């Protein structure tokens, strides 16, 4: 098993809590921690630190060919995967609390969170539309 294989399973309990048990008394307590994305980020750090110079040079002078070469490596693909998992979870955490504060039903938010797992940009846009509709209807 590689760090690539570990990144998503580390995030699954948090996703499950937000999607399957959004009103469970422990879900908001658990999700309140800003450290929720830390577990997948641990994979990111473990992958980037041994290659920090190479990654840093690629980020300082972005070049498509160089980036393609890095992403074609196991550590590069794992690095980007862990990054995506962590930041998707960070966005989902914000959506979860924003929905609660706007009194948006979990029956609406949970499917959006599932969409966010697979296609986070689409999930975020759908959530922002739902949020905008909710804000306008509350005014």
UniProtKB/TrEMBL annotation:
Q: Mark the transmembrane ranges.
A: 34-52, 72-96, 108-130
What are the entry keywords? Membrane, Transmembrane, Transmembrane helix
Short name of any one Pfam family annotated for the protein: ABA4-like
By its UniProt entry, which PANTHER family does this protein fall under?
Answer: PROTEIN ABA DEFICIENT 4, CHLOROPLASTIC
What is this protein's record name? ABA4-like family protein
Q: Which organism is it from?
A: Amycolatopsis nalaikhensis
């Amino acid at each position: 098993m590689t760090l690539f294989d570990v990144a998503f399973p580390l995030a699954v309990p948090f996703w499950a809590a937000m999607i399957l048990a959004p009103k469970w008394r422990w879900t908001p307590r658990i999700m309140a921690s800003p450290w929720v994305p830390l577990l997948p980020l641990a994979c990111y750090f473990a992958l980037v630190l041994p290659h920090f110079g190479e990654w840093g040079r690629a980020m300082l002078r972005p070049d498509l060919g160089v980036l393609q070469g890095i992403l074609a490596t196991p550590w590069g693909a794992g690095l980007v995967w862990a990054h995506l998992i962590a930041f998707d979870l960070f966005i989902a955490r914000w959506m979860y609390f924003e929905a609660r504060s706007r009194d948006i039903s979990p029956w609406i938010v949970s499917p959006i969170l599932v969409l966010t797992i697979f296609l986070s940009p689409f999930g975020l846009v759908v959530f922002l539309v739902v949020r905008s509709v909710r804000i306008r209807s509350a005014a």
